[in-house]
């Protein structure tokens, strides 16, 4: 006969702890009992007790687990693509968990984005809110590109997926051409301003038919400003009226 080998049970905050996929209890030949916790969570923070019992008596050993950091985890990643409208605002959202609350740096291509009056970023502040946002006001063609986020805390770091942003806008007239009154042989000039992206193609019509250089039409378009001009030198009242 000999001394009975103690039976070891584990408790968490005074309550019996049962093994599962994350919490594993093992015992070596020398009687060492080990509790392993995989993918620690905030709810695992507390007092753990190892209780050894045999026919002679029992003994306890307690220890406290503090969660210093849980590496970031993306629970809702960026969309693969987003179409933004020129002149309006766009918002990209990312949901990330971690302890302490992760820091997020937004990027376009390889460049970090610096917040400004036009580029606005928000981070969650309320309990249970894990949403980070990037908002760009008055979207312009140069805002096109691949957007992503760099995420980090003391537990680790990772990157989000990429979101490809394209900028478009249907053509609209900012100013419309005014009616002109000229005499035979004079020059008629019509001017207009158009906004759209990609740069719209401008076609001038006379009584529903496209004007061409054969009709004496001279057409100009400034793609950067959207200014378009139609000039008709030496107006022929029979041809151009």
From TrEMBL:
Q: Which InterPro entries match?
A: Ig-like_dom (IPR007110), Ig-like_dom_sf (IPR036179), Ig-like_fold (IPR013783), Ig_I-set (IPR013098), Ig_sub (IPR003599), Ig_sub2 (IPR003598)
What organism is recorded for this protein? Adineta ricciae
- This protein's UniProt keywords: Disulfide bond, Immunoglobulin domain, Repeat
Task: Supply the name of the protein.
Answer: Ig-like domain-containing protein
PANTHER family named among the record's database cross-references:
IMMUNOGLOBULIN
PROSITE patterns, alphabetized: IG_LIKE
**What phylogenetic lineage does the species belong to?**
Eukaryota, Metazoa, Spiralia, Gnathifera, Rotifera
Q: Where is the Ig-like domain?
A: 1-66, 72-166, 171-241
């Amino acid at each position: 006969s000999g001394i009975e080998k103690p039976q070891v049970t584990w408790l968490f905050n005074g309550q019996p702890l049962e093994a599962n996929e994350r919490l594993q209890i093992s015992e070596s030949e020398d009687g060492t009992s080990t509790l392993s916790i995989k993918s620690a969570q905030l709810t695992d923070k507390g007092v753990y007790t190892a209780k050894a019992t045999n026919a002679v008596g029992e003994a306890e050993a307690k220890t406290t687990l503090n969660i210093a950091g849980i590496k970031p985890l993306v629970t809702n990643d960026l969309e693969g693509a987003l179409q933004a409208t020129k002149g309006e605002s766009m918002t990209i959202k990312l949901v990330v968990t971690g302890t302490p609350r992760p820091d997020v740096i937004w990027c376009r291509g390889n460049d970090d984005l610096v917040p400004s009056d036009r580029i606005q970023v928000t981070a969650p502040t309320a309990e249970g809110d894990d949403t980070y946002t990037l908002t760009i006001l008055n979207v312009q063609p140069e805002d096109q590109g691949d957007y992503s986020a760099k995420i980090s805390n003391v537990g680790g770091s990772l990157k989000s997926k990429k979101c490809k942003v394209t900028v478009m806008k249907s053509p609209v007239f900012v100013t419309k051409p005014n009616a002109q009154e000229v005499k035979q042989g004079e020059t008629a000039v019509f001017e207009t301003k158009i906004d759209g992206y990609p740069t719209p193609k401008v076609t001038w019509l006379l009584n529903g038919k496209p004007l061409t250089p054969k009709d004496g039409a001279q057409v100009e378009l400034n793609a950067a400003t959207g200014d378009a001009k139609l000039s008709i030198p030496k107006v022929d009242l029979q041809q151009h009226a």
